[in-house]
Write a structure and sequence with these properties.
about 140 residues, mainly alpha, 8 helices, elongated, Doxx family protein, transmembrane, membrane, transmembrane helix
Length: about 140
């Protein structure tokens, strides 16, 4: 159930990026990616690449395939969503580090998704180890 729920979130946020000015975090995503790529890729292209990445993660989570690979792809993605806290603290915090802006709250909720992905990855590793152990016993 958890992969499907996270997959729906990824589909939703990825789909929003295909339509300019709809996503509340579009500008922040563009400027963050600009910083991460040293401005080598135009923002209009990077936002579409991000949309495809999020949509792909969402679909594969919902289909429950390539689990370990997709969990890692999602963990990398969701970890990168925290980089605005380093690059643009004035966009994320108001007067101090205890007062988040709306964009800061938008990013902070990703902690829950990151924790859920960590649990899913751990469960998958446990299943794989169990299968290997069973095969060795045969």
């Amino acid at each position: 159930m958890m992969p499907i729920a996270i997959g729906i979130v990824y589909l939703w946020f990825g789909a929003l990026k295909f339509f300019p000015d709809i996503s509340p975090a579009e500008d922040l995503a563009k400027t963050t990616i600009h910083e991460l790529t040293f401005g080598l890729i135009p923002s209009d292209i990077t936002i579409l690449l991000l949309a495809f990445w999020e949509i792909t993660i969402g679909i594969l989570l919902i289909l429950n395939v390539y689990k370990r690979m997709i969990y890692w792809a999602a963990i990398i993605h969701i970890t990168l969503t925290f980089t605005p806290w380093l690059f643009f603290p004035s966009e994320v915090f108001k007067n101090n580090y205890f007062q988040l802006t709306l964009l800061g709250q938008y990013i902070a909720k990703n902690i829950v998704i990151l924790a859920a992905l960590a649990v899913l990855l751990k469960e998958e590793k446990t299943k794989e180890a169990s299968v290997i152990t069973q095969k060795e016993m045969m």
